[in-house]
Amino acid sequence: MKLVPQSAPYIRKNVSVKRMMLDVIIALLPVSIFAMIVNGWDGIYVFLISILTMLFVEIIAHGIIKWPKGMKIKELFSKEGFIKIKSTYTINNILAPLISALIYALIMPAGCSGYVVFLGALFGILIGKMVFGGLGSNIFNPAAVGRIFVGICFGTYLNDAYAKADVFAGATPLGFTKTQEGLVLNAVGNYSLLDLFLGNVPGCMGEVSTICILIGACYLFIRKSADIRATLSYLLSFGVVMMAASITESIVASGNIMHMWTYQMLSGGLLFGAVFMVTDPVTSGTTKFSRIAFGITAGLITALIRILGAYPEGVAFSILIANMLAPCYDYLNRGKPNKITWKQMIFLGSMILVIGLIIVINVMYIGGVFNA
User: Fold this and answer.
1) In the chain, N or C: fewer CB atoms in 10 Å?
2) CA torsion, points 12, 296, 34, 148, in degrees to nearest 10?
3) Is 322 in contact with 294 (CB distance < 8 Å)?
4) pLDDT for the residue 173
């Protein structure tokens, strides 16, 4: 048997990488169009800066990485040199950064400072992808890298953008869970579930319209251009521990269990991340077990950050942490059939149980149970 080395994504079905990427772009169109219509120029320029930056950096960095051996710089200006450089590029070198740029723009707030958008896009594509070797070699999601970078370094600019988007309430739906006194989940009265579903709330451009995200998800999964196992494991793990937290809160402080649970499921970037970020075939693992474990890990970390962390949202953070663990999950499944064993099921179930208990105990603590 001859082993053929190649970079990710590793595809086990009769579809091309090009077709998968085109499907992702098409699936992103509903939420992208919604964001541009609702936000106008404040949203459009975020898309433009993000797309232009990532495409340009990808082209330059890829040209440096794939520079033909022995070719001198002056040859670049000759016809032969140009043909050599051009031969290293494919349509995927345009589609891949375009997807990252769209996702990055959609997890940014409309009206954010242009140079902050530029710096995040530059950092995300350069440090999150190209330094690892470019297309198929990165271990981190470039859009998440860029978003976390600007969130940590330029948080004030992002807060100002959120404030402009919601001049009356002054906080996104998840922002209320960190500003309310008492339990961190006790903020469901500020936005209706219908508003969350339709997108009539402030927040990052891609996270506010659940219906647009679901339209894109249906297209992706019908076309089989995304692994639904990663999405379902992400949502189910998050949903299970959030249900436990909601039940606990309803006991220690009155509240509607389903209302609190649905509020967390529909608010923030949870659904957007589950459909368009967790399913990234390059950074999410190569086997059934590793992709399910990847989704569960990201879902549990998202729940921990939302309940106990300093940030109201935890999707991008959780995905980057899960990115680091994806190779470990692949290693655990090395040389084994591409199926889930009972030992792996026990391992995954134990993860959910432990994190669920941690969250329940802390919700009880926040509710004053241990102080009584």
Assistant:
1) N
2) -110
3) yes
4) 55
What's the rounded Cα separation, in Å, for the pair 106 and 5?
Answer: 34
Q: Identify the residue with better confidence: 308 or 165.
A: 308
**Which residue from 57, 59, 80 is spatially nearest to 70, judged by alpha carbons?**
80
- Cβ atoms of residues 363 and 183 within 8 Å: yes
Is residue 172 classed exposed, middle or buried when 0-12, 13-18 and 19+ CB atoms within 10 A define those classes? buried
Contact 165, 38 (CB under 8 A): no
Cis before 9 (ω within 30): yes
CA dist., res. 369 & res. 372, Å (int): 6
Q: What's the pLDDT at 100?
A: 93
Q: What are the backbone angles phi and psi of residue 128, rounded to the nearest 5°?
A: -80, -15
pTM, whole model, 2 decimals? 0.85
Predicted local distance difference test score (pLDDT) of residue 169: 35
**Residue in the structure block whose two tokens are 């569960």:** 296
CA 214 to each of CA 222, 316, 326: distance values in angstroms, whole numbers, following the listed order: 12, 19, 26
Torsional sign, CA 258, 261, 266, 272: negative
Residue 334 corresponds to which amino acid? R
Tokens of 212: 């647009």
**What 8-state DSSP symbol labels residue 193?**
H
